[in-house]
Design a protein that fits this description.
This protein has 218 residues and is an alpha/beta fold. The protein has five helices and six strands. Helix content is 32%, strand content 20%.
């Protein structure tokens, strides 16, 4: 059985400096400390892969690959996202659409119907402000109109949002993204943290990654 874990990282300008450092520190800890634990815990018949995407409207395609789809065994190091990558606005809707299309098999429609529910970890510090689609449009599109008809693997995806230094409006917005199976235990669909407490962010991301990666009935 195949399972994919996606990291969606907000690379807008407001994520620069301290927040960017926190993201890099946390991702390095995930790769160095969590992935070996996942290798030890996973079932022999489960293949886990990871994909890391960044999103910013300062980039030509809005959504860009930081780490291409990589098997668990091969994801052994983290190259820091450079500070100058963080610029522009926050097209979260485009990021959701890109992941949804990848899960649904892209233009080829090659859906792996035997795959375990994918997992998506969204890291952002504020309100989405992108268009075509907007964040709200992407959420509605995912719920109502799967790109390949009524069957949509995206609907089964486990989704967790982590807000960094968000205000009340940003928190309310990001919480709409979260979705977990009723059988998931020890994990929430939304977390608050700040770049001032890097250790807290690291521990949250490590816990979320581990919980979403190990085999659970959903």
């Amino acid at each position: 059985m195949n399972k994919t874990v996606y990291f969606l990282i907000d690379c807008s300008g407001s994520m620069k400096d301290a927040r960017a450092d926190a993201v890099n520190t946390a991702m390095e800890k995930v790769v160095d400390e969590v992935l070996p634990e996942i290798r030890a815990q996973r079932s022999a018949d489960t293949n886990i892969s990871f994909q890391v995407l960044g999103f910013s409207d300062a980039h030509k395609d809005k959504v860009f690959v930081i780490v291409p789809r990589t098997d668990l065994e091969d994801f052994t190091s983290w190259d820091n996202i450079q500070n100058d990558v963080f610029s522009g606005g926050t097209p979260t809707g485009a990021a959701i659409k890109a992941v949804m299309e990848d899960i649904e098999g892209g233009l080829n429609g090659d859906i792996d119907v035997q795959a375990a529910a994918p997992a998506i970890i969204l890291i952002s510090d504020g309100l989405p402000n992108g268009v075509d689609p907007t964040y709200e449009e992407a959420l509605q599109y995912a719920v109502k109109n799967g790109p390949y008809g009524e069957h949509t693997a995206y609907r089964r995806a486990l989704k967790v949002a982590i807000g960094m230094n968000v205000d009340a409006a940003g928190r309310e917005s990001l919480m709409k993204f979260g979705h977990l199976s009723a059988k998931m235990e020890g994990i929430s669909a939304y977390y608050d943290c700040t770049d001032e407490y890097v250790d807290q962010f690291v521990e949250i991301l490590k816990s979320v990654t581990l919980n979403l990666s190990v085999d659970k009935k959903d």
